[in-house]
Write a sequence for this structure.
């Protein structure tokens, strides 16, 4: 296993499986300051406003409790486990488990399935070819484009910007169709297996270049809209160090598994981490826009891909883990395999850290800021609120 | 002379109250009825103040009979004495009687506020401002005596008495110093509900009466008119804001009183500024209608609050009595300036007066536009604060345990009275402003027109408004019948936890939006959001500063020093001599 249990090393990725995962180790020790969450005491005039789990404005079921004296939000509690899903993965074979893992969050099916498969490959000592690694980069970057388009679209909605909302939705659909024609499934289902990836590169670049031009028009027009910027700037400012993905990079933190994971050859691509210093919704919006453009460049640099052989042995014992940069941050999978069956499995979702940061950043903001801020973190409850058995 | 009998009845009632509380209230009722009968003359516009006050006193007496059970004998006697003082003011033909009435009114009010709660602060606050008020009225009376040579009310060539007495009266109305002061809500909010009603509805009415009387006795001084407009417009805005954010229902009603009085003061300012005789007459009518609407509505509002288990919104609940809810709704509608209540007509007339003055152009026209806009803004805020009382005190929070509403009939009666007065307002308003448009079936005598010359400016037909509301309501009922209601459990996003929306949250948007004016702070003093009444704060600081300087001079400079004492005496003597010679 290329990951080691021991003392904390590197940046913090989040808790999982009863451990705390860092970029360089798995430890039982939580990082300093992680538990220092200010517990809000109800003051005179305040009441709890329950938002969700089943309500308009939220894409997923999540229990949000806002402590407010009216208009002003003094404390936020997010319960991603309100509608917790239990997945029985332990004792399952790799292929069966893969079917369930790639369905944890359809929008991030490639990230979840690839992180899981790369952990399996680590456990079983399976080597992957350069072609497979490039195919995986292709999948991850296509998924990143679509996921960030979706987040940006959802940030336009609360501003009442119907035109850019639908334009970004149209682009997201366009990317989904590119994925579908290249891989045979809009969400990469059934595309991956240990040591294997089935995706065709042909024609992707041309289609993405067209989408790029359309996206640039929308993105730069939004950045010129004072009405839109007023809703984003200084909204949800976070000074937290425990962040992941675009939320971290919008806070000036160069956190990106593509930089420090080393599992995929991003060094051969024009990848660069988009880092901004604003720490607010605007920063997170801008980072996403820049990452979409960078992902298109990365895909263009991959060259033509050939389909790889699917004959890889899946039997054996071992313990492994893998970390990838999913569209919304670090995703980590740990597996322990005995006789080709999963004896243990757990994961760390990028949303865990970002939910915590969101809660802190919401204090002192007002109700109308809520949706912009919530969407700007790109939190997927389906990834956090899942309990693996 | 006959009307002095009423004062005598009230004096006897005050004595009777020490032994038989109910007897005192019956005495107040009888005395007030007699006072109205003997003092009211429909042709004398100033006598409308007597009618208004007497209506309120009779209502207060009826309410007090059951409300007073929890209070000692001091309440009935003090209330009778206070009303006796007000009668003396309304009856006064000279400054001496006015001052006597003013003090007779103030001292029992101090006793009521002081005896009601253990906290002596509100009573001392009340007394301090009352004495300031009295000093200014005494000074104004002395000025009038020196300028006219008599203590009787007579025309004065000087504006001094008007200015001094008006400032004294404005203190009683909660508007000086610093345009708005928190003392009135503190004092009125700390009295029993029946006394609060009398204080807010009629003690401040005395201020209106005295200022109006002085205006009629003084030359038209336009700058005093502008002063009134400035004080009125600033007060109306701030009082409505503070009312909106108040969490104490009685304090809210107190701020509402300042807001209403500020509206009346603005009308009086406009009366001084306006030069067109017809418009001035319309403004005079506006003052009377507004005073009537405010006094009666505020009485109903305090009665409704008095029926609540606590003074704070958090302690209130939904009354079981449907009639009380209807009464409170109509009362708050009137204080919001909505039809079909007398308050709606009053607000319409006030805004019409300002619109008409705007046509005069120049400085008066410009100031009428600006101040009319501020008044409209204040009225909007007032609607918000009244809806807060209606919603959080009477419509929501059902089932907190209120068992009985002893005075539900009188509260609903006041609501009906406000509609009735709206319907008969065509008989109250001067015939000069009554007309009709038979061509559209609004017959002559059923329409009030605002005008500042020969041509009509605006119009309203209260009876047609009422008729249309009634007809369409009945029509809707005939067609749709009573709506079928189905009560379902509250849906809270799928969560079983249900927390109630609070009155605090209702008004927190204003706390946040006006953070610079209200000095809004989050999380201070264990409260979610705190605000500061800057006027009150400045006043407190000045008071503390004055006290510190006095203490320093007394203890450090003049203490046992005959030479400093002599210097002080000589300086004081010289200052008084200069004032006496100069004025």
């Amino acid at each position: 296993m290329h990951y080691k249990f021991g003392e904390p090393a590197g940046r913090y990725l989040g808790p999982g499986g009863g451990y705390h995962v860092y970029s360089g180790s798995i430890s039982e020790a939580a990082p300093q300051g992680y538990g220092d969450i200010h517990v809000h005491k109800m003051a005179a005039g305040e009441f709890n406003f329950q938002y969700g789990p089943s309500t308009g404005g939220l894409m997923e079921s999540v229990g949000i409790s806002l402590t407010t004296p009216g208009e002003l939000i003094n404390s936020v509690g997010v319960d991603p486990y309100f509608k917790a899903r239990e997945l029985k993965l332990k004792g399952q074979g790799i292929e069966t488990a893969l079917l369930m893992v790639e369905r944890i969050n359809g929008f991030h099916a490639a990230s979840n399935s690839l992180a899981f498969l790369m952990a399996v490959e680590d456990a079983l000592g399976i080597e992957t070819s350069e072609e497979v690694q490039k195919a995986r980069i292709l999948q991850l970057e296509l998924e990143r484009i679509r996921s960030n388009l979706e987040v940006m679209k959802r940030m336009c909605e609360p501003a009442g910007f119907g035109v850019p909302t639908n334009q970004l939705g149209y682009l997201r659909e366009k990317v989904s169709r590119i994925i579908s024609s290249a891989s045979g499934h809009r969400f990469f289902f059934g595309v991956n297996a240990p040591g294997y990836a089935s995706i065709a590169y042909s024609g992707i670049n041309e289609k993405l270049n067209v989408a790029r031009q359309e996206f640039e028009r929308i993105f730069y027009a939004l950045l010129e809209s004072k009405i839109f910027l007023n809703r984003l700037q200084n909204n949800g400012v976070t000074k937290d160090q425990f962040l992941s993905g675009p939320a971290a990079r919008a806070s000036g933190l160069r956190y990106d598994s593509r930089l420090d994971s080393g599992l995929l050859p991003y060094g051969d691509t024009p990848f660069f981490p988009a880092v901004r210093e604003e720490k607010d919704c605007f920063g997170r919006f801008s980072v996403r826009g820049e990452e979409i453009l960078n992902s298109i460049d990365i895909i263009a640099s991959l060259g033509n891909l050939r389909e790889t052989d699917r004959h890889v042995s899946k039997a054996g014992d071992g313990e492994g883990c893998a970390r990838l940069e999913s569209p919304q941050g670090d995703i980590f999978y740990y597996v322990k395999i005995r006789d080709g069956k999963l004896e243990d499995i757990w994961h760390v979702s990028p949303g865990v850290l970002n939910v915590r940061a969101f809660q802190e950043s919401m204090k002192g903001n007002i109700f109308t800021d809520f949706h912009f801020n919530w969407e700007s973190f790109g939190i997927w409850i389906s990834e956090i609120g899942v309990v693996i058995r | 002379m006959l009307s002095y009998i009423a004062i005598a009845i009230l004096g006897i009632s005050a004595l009777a109250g020490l032994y038989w509380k109910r007897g005192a209230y019956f005495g107040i009722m009888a005395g007030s009825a007699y006072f109205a009968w003997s003092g009211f003359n429909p042709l004398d516009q100033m006598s409308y103040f007597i009618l208004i006050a007497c209506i309120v006193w009779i209502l207060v007496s009826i309410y007090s009979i059951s409300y007073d059970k929890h209070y000692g004998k001091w309440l009935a006697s003090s209330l009778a004495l206070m009303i006796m003082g007000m009668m003396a003011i309304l009856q006064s033909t000279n400054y001496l009687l006015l001052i006597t009435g003013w003090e007779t009114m103030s001292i029992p009010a101090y006793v009521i506020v002081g005896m009601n709660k253990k906290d002596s602060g509100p009573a001392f606050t009340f007394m301090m401002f009352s004495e300031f008020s009295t000093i200014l009225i005494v000074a104004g009376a002395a000025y009038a005596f020196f300028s006219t040579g008599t203590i009787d009310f007579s025309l004065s060539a000087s504006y001094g008495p008007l200015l001094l007495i008006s400032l004294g009266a404005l203190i009683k109305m909660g508007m000086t110093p610093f345009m708005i002061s928190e003392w009135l809500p503190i004092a009125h909010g700390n009295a029993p509900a029946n006394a609060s009603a009398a204080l807010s509805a009629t003690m401040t009415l005395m201020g209106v009466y005295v200022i109006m009387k002085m205006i009629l006795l003084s030359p038209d001084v336009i700058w005093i008119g502008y002063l009134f407009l400035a004080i009125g417009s600033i007060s109306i805005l701030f009082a409505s804001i503070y009312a909106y954010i108040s969490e104490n229902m009685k304090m809210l009603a107190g701020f509402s009183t300042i807001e209403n009085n500020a509206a009346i003061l603005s009308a009086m300012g406009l009366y001084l500024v306006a030069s067109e005789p017809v418009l001035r007459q319309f403004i005079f009518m506006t003052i009377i209608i507004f005073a009537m609407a405010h006094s009666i509505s505020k009485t109903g509002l305090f009665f409704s609050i008095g029926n609540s288990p606590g003074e704070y919104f958090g302690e209130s609940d939904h009354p079981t009595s449907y009639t009380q809810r209807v009464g409170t709704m109509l009362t708050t509608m009137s204080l919001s300036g909505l039809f079909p209540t007398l308050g709606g007509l009053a607000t319409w007339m006030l805004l019409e007066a300002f619109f008409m003055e705007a046509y005069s152009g120049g400085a008066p026209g410009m100031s009428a536009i600006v101040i009319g806009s501020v008044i409209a803004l204040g009225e909007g805020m007032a609607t918000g604060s009244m809806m807060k009382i209606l919603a959080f005190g009477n419509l929501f929070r059902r089932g907190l345990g209120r068992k009985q509403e002893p005075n539900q009939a009188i509260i609903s009666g006041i609501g009906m009275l406000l509609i009735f007065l709206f319907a008969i307002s065509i008989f109250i308003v001067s015939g000069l402003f009554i007309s009709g448009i038979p061509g559209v079936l609004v017959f002559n005598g059923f329409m009030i027109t605002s005008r500042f010359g020969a041509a009509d400016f605006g119009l309203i037909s209260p009876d047609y408004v009422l008729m249309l509301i009634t007809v369409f309501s009945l029509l809707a009922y005939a067609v749709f019948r009573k709506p079928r209601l189905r009560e379902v459990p509250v849906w809270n996003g799928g969560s079983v936890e249900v927390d109630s929306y609070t009155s605090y949250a209702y008004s927190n948007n204003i706390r946040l939006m006006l953070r610079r004016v209200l000095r809004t702070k989050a999380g201070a003093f264990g409260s979610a959001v705190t605000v500061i009444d800057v006027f009150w704060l400045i006043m407190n600081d000045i008071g503390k500063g004055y006290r510190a300087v006095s203490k320093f001079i007394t203890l450090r400079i003049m203490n046992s020093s005959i030479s400093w004492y002599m210097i002080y005496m000589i300086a004081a003597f010289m200052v008084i001599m200069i004032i006496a010679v100069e004025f």
